[in-house]
Write a structure and sequence with these properties.
With 203 residues, this protein is mainly α. The protein has helices spanning 2-16, 19-57, 62-77, 88-112, 116-120, 122-157, 161-167, 178-184. The protein contains eight helices and no strands. Helix 3 (62-77) runs antiparallel to helix 4 (88-112). It starts with a helix and ends in a 19-residue tail after the last helix.
């Protein structure tokens, strides 16, 4: 009975000092980050098909095609695990690599402007639509992660929950900085409007 009372008392103290809030916040971050990773992976999975379609019409655009392929390889070589949010340096490298991927895809899509037949290709336009939807989901998932980290970090830094955080080893989580947010906040433009007639002269 005495042990139960002590256990109940400890739960009340920990709850009052933010223990439960820290646990809940940590789980929210894990869930939000998992969705970010899921959408980034979805985008990476679209890239090979996109490159192959573009290559079919613009094989001589080697620099752009190589840039996209290498950007995807860099992203794929990184260990994108849930624990990434506990390593600020690794997190920053991962986000930087995703920013490079965004830039490379943007340049690849820009190249397509010079190839009316490519723009009119049904598979290419389908990939555009999928990519646009994925970029939108990335933005939503990223914003949810940012909000989850903000709430958690406030708890970690605020008194008296900061004492509980120190006691149980809870530290602030990395979020998107101003620099890397600017690098990836603008999704690639994928809307080319009405496809040009096949055989029409390039712009």
């Amino acid at each position: 009975m005495f042990k139960k009372l002590i256990a109940t008392f400890m739960v009340m103290i920990l709850s009052g000092c933010g223990y439960n809030t820290l646990q809940s916040g940590d789980e929210n971050i894990k869930a939000a980050w998992a969705e970010v990773l899921n959408q980034y992976q979805r985008r990476a999975d679209l890239v090979p098909n996109l490159v192959n379609v573009v290559k079919g019409y613009a094989a001589h655009e080697k620099d752009v095609l190589t840039e996209v392929t290498e950007a995807r390889a860099r992203v794929g070589a990184m260990q994108a695990t849930p624990d990434l949010v506990n390593d600020e340096e690794a997190f920053s490298k991962f986000i930087a690599a995703q920013g490079q991927m965004t830039s490379a895809i943007s340049r690849l899509l820009l190249v397509a402007e010079n190839y009316p037949q490519l723009k009119a290709d049904g598979l290419f336009r389908d990939l555009q639509a999928q990519l646009e939807g994925t970029e939108n989901r990335i933005t939503v998932a990223r914003n949810r992660y940012i909000d989850a980290v903000k709430e958690y970090n406030i708890t970690v830094r605020s008194f008296p929950s900061n004492l509980t955080a120190m006691m149980f080893g809870h530290k602030t989580k990395p979020s998107f900085t101003v620099e890397n947010e600017q690098a990836i906040a603008q999704p690639p433009k994928v809307d080319f409007g009405t496809p040009a007639p096949v055989g029409a002269p390039a712009n």
